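Continuing from the previous page...

OK, I double-checked the sequence for SH3 domain-containing protein against my notes and this is the correct one:
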Amino acid sequence: MLGALALPSLSAPTASAATVATASSCYNLPPLPYTVHTKAVTIRSKASVKSTSLGILYRGHKFTVHKTSGNWHYITDKTTGVKGWVSGTYVYRDVRMCLD
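Thanks. Re-ran it with the corrected sequence; updated structure tokens here:
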């Protein structure tokens, strides 16, 4: 035998009350914002590609959706205050994963 190698003992961290409270309160947090995931998306006056263009949101822009109709979302651009419809094809919403 060549010799024994001493390794530090590893122990799993214990969950504290603060960790448990944070994990359980994850369900109570507000939903995450939607984000544009294409180069740009047009804000429209109605939920139709043929309706009037009111503005443009660019990649990475975050916004809040007020309601959804089919694959269209009624939004307010917080930067400009423009309200209108954007196609759900070009936007996504990050999802929070709550671990118990």
